Amino acid sequence: MSLEVKIKKRLKNFVLEVEFDTREGIVGILGASGCGKSMTLKSIAGLVTPDEGRIVLNGKVFFDSEKKINLPPQKRRVGYLFQNYALFPNMTVEENIQAGLFCSKIEKKKKVQEMIKLLRLEGLETQYPDQLSGGQQQRVAFARLLAYDPEVLLLDEPFSALDSHLKEQLQIQLKEILSHYDKTVLMVSHDRNEIYRLSSDIITMKNGEILQYGSTKEVFQYPKDPITARLIGYKNLSLAQKLDDYRVEALEWNMIFRTTKPISSHIRYLGIQEKGICLRTNKDEVQREKKESNVFFMEVVDVLEEPYEYHILVRSKEGDKGNNKQESMVYHQKEIWCVVKKEEIKEEIGIKKGDCCTISIEESQILFF
Known about the structure:
Blueprint: E1 3-10, E2 15-22, E3 25-30, H1 37-45, E4 52-57, E5 60-64, E6 69-70, E7 78-81, H2 93-97, H3 105-118, H4 134-147, E8 152-156, H5 164-178, E9 184-189, H6 192-198, E10 201-206, E11 209-215, H7 216-221, H8 226-231, E12 236-244, E13 247-250, E14 255-258, E15 269-272, E16 277-280, H9 283-289, E17 295-305, E18 309-315, H10 325-331, E19 336-341, E20 356-361, E21 366-368
Parallel strand pairs: 3-9, 3-10, 7-8, 8-9
Antiparallel strand pairs: 1-2, 1-4, 4-5, 5-6, 10-11, 12-13, 12-15, 13-14, 15-21, 16-20, 17-18, 17-20, 18-19
Helix pairs in contact: 3-4
């Protein structure tokens, strides 16, 4: 099983230009809204036509601009799950599932029964879409896709219309169902947790271009650019300047980091995850930690409380030295985000805006681009 995509299409604000090939498995496409994720899926499905390029699934040419090939959607055997599920409102659950089937009545009935059981829709066969919950509607839409036995599944923000509890339940169900599907699945999302849970590989995108493509765990562990880092959860990013082989300055934060490994002369950015920062407010601990490398005196800018953790924004009193203000506004911030789990402290955090503290950062938690 293989899907090869190389297309180019001019859109309103940018040019969509992507090239990738996939094998069987789930490939997540992660990016901000409007970056071209859904347009890529629609091009594969035949719902929109690229300006140029080529799309091939298992040796079958869907689109080839040079050879003037452009198969209509119904000849591509592609299953496309729309964000709104696109169920027929005047059809029952059974009728919706069999809507795309072209076979005998006996075969249709058998296939529908299989899908009803697989997607746990027993008892809902005669219900109409407006009588179903959002989760039930999604399962019906997915049953209709699988009944068609498509060569590739295209899932466009499949959980965006669901509340968080239902979303997690359906993600577990979908993961189980797709574990038995030995073909290609492309899933678009702007939710990194969703992508991480379900995808074996990941593509990150920005303004119509692919930034990084690799195994999900590899990309999350080693993002290669600041946009990908931001997409997978890095809140702390700064422009960086190499000072010597073992020192680099984070220009946004006016902080100098030391390393034990030589620093590349090509670095432009520095990133740190919230969880990689240790914050201390006790004066004795502050003085003791200050003797270590990569420990900094900071001022608390804000404390944001969530049900199970605190997010603490701190800032160096020295200010920032970022020399590209436009770039800084797009990617970075002067404050550094830290996280403290409530289970790690016995009482109220006891820190407020304006307090002094230290943060210590292990070298292994510092990412260079």
